[in-house]
Design brief:
The protein is an alpha+beta fold. It is built from 10 helices and 21 strands. 27% of the residues lie in helices and 32% in strands. Strands 3, 4, 5, 6, 7, 12, 13, 14, 15, 16, 18 and 19 form a 12-stranded antiparallel β-sheet that branches. Strand 3 (43-48) and strand 4 (53-58) form a beta hairpin. 50% of the residues are buried. Residues 126-151 have low confidence and may be disordered.
């Protein structure tokens, strides 16, 4: 049975399932991906920032068990086996001590975590493209350019322009140095989440690709990820210590239609002062975040301002790494870093206050983290970007409403029309995956 066949079977036969579809990009999976399914007596957790309640779901029951999803998840791990594996996401509003709009009634839960009793590893084909795995670009064939996808054109909307202007006021007042300004888009499709995800993984392969289904009354949510960005990877070193690594992305350009155009876009990205400044600010923020949880003197930046290439974009990526202190749990470290600095701006707290003031809608799962945590201290999560979510079909059950977030980093050098245009083409492949007619892409 192929992984796609097993995925279809799992999603059809189980209300709760997950596919971490890394295709070789994840350190823990090598060239494998992981499919997990939950039986009725398996545990899942959901969180509502609006009510401040963490709910435990098992055997058809739902019990409120806490107010902080990170704390409840850590408690569940402490009470279980060191081999327990948890899969899920934490959305942008999952730290009660930080300012963020809670998910609304038409959003997926602010967090979903699942402990499947059945998991299965699948070997990926050896011909997965390097671009799909998120490797540094090394030339070769150019993927299908964005120009073949449905264009999101038109003037910059007044709502975005107003939010941009208010961000500029905060930047010029010195209250923040960079703000990740986002908004959401809604679309309907005849494709159910399984079909839409299989289309998405073909159109926009990414290292943090994955699918989550939590079809539970009162806490329904589907998440379809094609994220290129690492939130945090926690591994065990030979001496038993835990090493944490994050890879912030700041600076994005589309791929070119020809090899020459593609190389020129890549060169411009690497040299553009605005992009370099954005990336350096976020890298410095993450150095500070890691210093809060790592042993003194172990935080380093082994890669700074590297260009990584994906089927639709070139991106400017840095790597920050450190050795976790023994008195800091892995879940505690993930909480301290949350949300990703690349999705807030710098400084984090003040910038999140600005975001809460200027963004009209909640981010929900968007801008959070999605992946895998093991009770033995290892973890691997991506940032929730380039991701579709849905809470179920329309009343007539022949259409599915999908939601996605998009945006980018704003500095005093930013141009409103350029920033809005960038946010739109970041969303194009996601929306293209929802088209009913594959020939339309």
């Amino acid at each position: 049975m192929t992984v796609v066949d097993a995925f279809r079977e799992a999603a059809a036969g189980h209300a709760r399932c997950v596919w971490l579809d890394g295709g070789g990009a994840r350190e823990w999976s090598s060239d494998q991906s992981l499919l997990g399914v939950l039986e009725p007596d398996d545990v899942s957790l959901t969180y509502s920032a609006a009510t401040g309640e963490v709910t435990r779901h098992v055997d058809g029951t739902a019990e409120v068990v806490g107010t902080d999803v990170f704390e409840v998840l850590a408690d569940e791990m402490a009470a279980g086996s060191r081999r327990d594996q948890w899969f899920g996401y934490v959305g942008y509003a999952c730290r009660p001590d930080l300012p963020a709009h809670p998910a609304g009634p038409t959003d997926v839960p602010d967090a979903v975590w699942m402990r499947p009793s059945r998991t299965r590893l699948f070997q990926h084909r050896s011909d997965v493209s390097p671009a799909g795995r998120g490797n540094v670009h090394s030339g070769g064939d150019i993927p299908t350019p964005l120009s073949t996808f449905p264009r999101l054109t038109g003037e910059t909307p007044a709502r975005y322009a107003d939010a941009f202007a208010r961000v500029q006021e905060q930047l010029r007042a010195g209250n923040t140095y960079e703000v990740n300004l986002t908004y959401r888009l809604d679309a309907e499709s005849a494709l159910d989440p399984v079909a839409a995800y299989l289309r998405l993984r073909e159109l926009n392969p990414a290292p943090y690709a994955g699918f989550l289904q939590h079809d539970v009354p009162g806490a329904r949510g589907w998440l379809l990820s094609s994220s290129p960005e690492r939130y945090a990877l926690v591994t065990r070193a030979e001496d038993g210590s835990r090493v944490i690594e994050t890879k912030p992305i700041k600076g994005t350009t589309p791929r070119g239609a020809t090899p020459a155009e593609d190389d020129e876009l890549r060169r411009r990205l690497a040299a553009e002062p605005k992009f370099r400044a954005e990336n350096l600010m976020i890298t410095d923020l993450l150095r500070n975040d890691l210093a809060m949880v790592c042993e003194l003197g172990t935080v380093e930046v082994p890669s700074l301002l590297a260009v990584e290439s994906y089927p639709s974009v070139h991106q400017l990526v840095s790597t920050v790494r450190g050795r976790l202190r023994d008195d800091v749990s892995t879940v505690g470290a993930l909480r301290e870093l949350f949300p990703a600095g690349s999705m807030t701006g710098a400084p984090k707290l003040r910038t999140m206050q600005v975001i809460a003031d200027v963004e009209a809608t909640p981010r929900a799962a968007y801008a959070g983290a999605f992946g895998w945590i093991c009770a033995d201290g290892r973890a691997d999560l991506g940032v929730v970007i380039r991701t579709l979510t849905t809470t179920g079909p329309t009343e007539d059950e022949d259409r599915w409403p999908y939601r996605l977030g998009t945006g980018g980093g704003i500095t005093v050098q930013s141009d409103v029309d350029e920033e809005h245009a960038e946010s739109r083409w970041k969303a194009e492949r996601l929306l293209g995956s929802l088209l009913s007619d594959p020939s339309a892409t």
